Amino acid sequence: MSEFIIALHVLVFLAHDMVSKSSEELSKNVCTNPVRIRKVMSKCKKHGLVETKAGINGGYMISKPGNEITLKDIYDAIDVSLVESKWRSGDIKAECLIASGMGDYIDMLFSYFNEELALLLDNITLDMVEQKLKSIRDNKV
């Protein structure tokens, strides 16, 4: 999940001014380290969301305008579940119907949630996220 958040943050930031940013610049804005930025951005690059540029003014540049990139594009590039649990209740070897089946049920339920979320994410663009951020900022003032 954190990789999705990093990718979303970076891509909205890159789409905002459409200029190349180094992993160090991006890491300062995201408040994480440049190694994590590079790891996440390599996935985004493989899926055509960013391009890289070498040299003094090098770094990452968004490959398309923010209105052409959806959160589903990011979800597909990062390939992580947004809804998941690292813990399972019950015991699959238990005789109890509830204890033996709940873990599998929750896995199926969370899989369904992720499928439905992917459909919703396909309707949200980076531009829409930026507009929402502006609205949040304006409401704080």
From TrEMBL:
This is Rrf2 family transcriptional regulator. It comes from the Bacteria. InterPro entries: Tscrpt_reg_Rrf2, WH-like_DNA-bd_sf, WH_DNA-bd_sf.
